[in-house]
Amino acid sequence: MDTPSGSRVVPRRQLGSDLRLGGPEGSPQAVAGAPRPAYRRLMDLGTRDVDAALAALAHPVRRSILEWLVPGPAAAGDLAASACAAFAISRTRASQHLGVLARSGLVMVSVDGPWRWYALSDGSADDLDAWLRRIRLSTCRAPRRSI
């Protein structure tokens, strides 16, 4: 698909999660082969799992959904209804948040007839935890400067 400026934009389904980190369609980050801006390169944390987990945890609705899943699996409709009540969002928006969590690997989805059951993935946050542990250790070792 061509943009008004003549550059080619790769459809969202071909870019996958890269578009989520790059920007909206039509922006320079969404153009195929365009270099990532410097501030995006600085945010690269080393693994796509950590990046995806942090991107998923960036929204309060998704953090709440994860907390609602701590006791055990829940149906998509129940999670969407809870999100709608707690955050005054539509069921469509709640479903989109569930999709982001599933794509990030933080939750897993199982289909049972017409029902979609969401549950926390085992070990899904291990990479994120290891990265945070590394950051904590590096701050503990850094000498403090006196002013």
Description:
With 147 residues, the chain is mostly helical. Helix 4 packs antiparallel against helix 7 (91-104) and helix 6 (76-87) crosses helix 7 (91-104). It has a three-stranded antiparallel sheet with strand order 1-3-2. 15% of the residues are buried. The protein has helices at 12-15, 17-22, 38-42, 48-57, 60-68, 76-87, 91-104, 126-141, and strands spanning 74-75, 107-112, 115-120. The radius of gyration is 19 Å and the shape is elongated. A hairpin with a 2-residue loop joins strand 2 and strand 3.
Strand-and-helix sequence, N→C? Answer: HHHHHEHHEEH
SS class: mainly alpha
Count the DSSP helices.
Answer: 8
User: How large is the radius of gyration?
Assistant: 19 Å
Largest sheet report: 3 strands, antiparallel
Average the pLDDT over all residues and give the rounded result: 75
Low-confidence blocks of residues = 7-31, 38-45
List the helices and strands and how they pair.
Blueprint (H helix, E strand, L loop, with lengths): L11 H4 L1 H6 L15 H5 L5 H10 L2 H9 L5 E2 H12 L3 H14 L2 E6 L2 E6 L5 H16 L6
Antiparallel strand pairs: 1-3, 2-3
Helix pairs in contact: 4-7, 6-7
How would you sum up this structure in a few lines?
52% of the residues lie in helices and 10% in strands. The chain has 147 residues and is mainly alpha-helical.
Task: Name the descriptors.
52% helix, three-stranded antiparallel beta sheet, mainly alpha
